[in-house]
Specification:
Length: about 325
Amino acid sequence: RGNRVKRREFITLVGAVAAWPVAARAQQALPVVGYLDVTSALSGLDPNLQIFRQGLNEAGFIEGKNVAIEYRSANGQYDRLPALAADLVRRQVTVITANSPVVALAAKAATTTIPIVFSLGSDPVKDGLVANLNRPGGNITGVTFFANVLLAKRLDLLHELLPNAAVIAVLLNPSNTGAERDLNEIQIAARALGVRLVVLRAATENEIDTALANVVQQGASALFVSADAFFNTVARDRILALAARQAIPVSFAIRSAAAAGALMSYGASIAEVYRQFGMYTGRILKGEKPAEMPVQQPTRFEFVLNLKTAKALGLTISRDMLLVADEVIE
């Protein structure tokens, strides 16, 4: 009898074994978001990633509970993106997210069937990502904050802060598909203001060191950093440190750069953009079709001034500019 298994125990044992594959299948059935990032989203400290997750939560999805996220980061090396996108396609993720035009284009080249959700600062129609903003068509939709459209306004604000700046350096990333288009917009705005531009190009941290080594010697009185995912994240602090050594005021498109020491920033609320980014991803996980989801656009734009940086640079900010600013960091 000691070697026998009681009938009730046997049934329980068989039931448990039979249930195991079901549990395993249920776990495998979690939808998977392929989070493709040109920078380094693998660090859970990225505030934008945290806001993206909040947006997902609002759509009803919690990482590890009812959705899994596969992270792929190019760490600023744009040429790695096609292979990373192809890897996510091979893994048959449910949806791919892309946080810049070059990432979205890599994802688009890798699949015509897996839904893609983008968050970017350029015009997705001009980038060739969607047919139009209201009915994107295909397998792609997302959020654009049109940072390129705001370039002229941002240059104008920088000129108002520094009316005597006759020469301004512009930093572009040649790996960014919209870089030359952005330069054209900035040049038109600069001509209207009577400002001469010094154009600097860099796609790696070493190239940034070289490009910014002699900004003052080139006659520039300020640095205008184009809206680029690499500049805004991985390279941001390096750019600010190099500019600070030469006492050069810096303008970025995102608030976090102004908080980190740039003189000013002007652009859409990135917190709002990434929240929408997460919510749109959640809606696709629920079964909505990208082709029928209009590209979202932000409603909040922020002009942020760093008064501490202004004082360190010996700049006096007029009362009018302080009143115009949405936020003054002291």
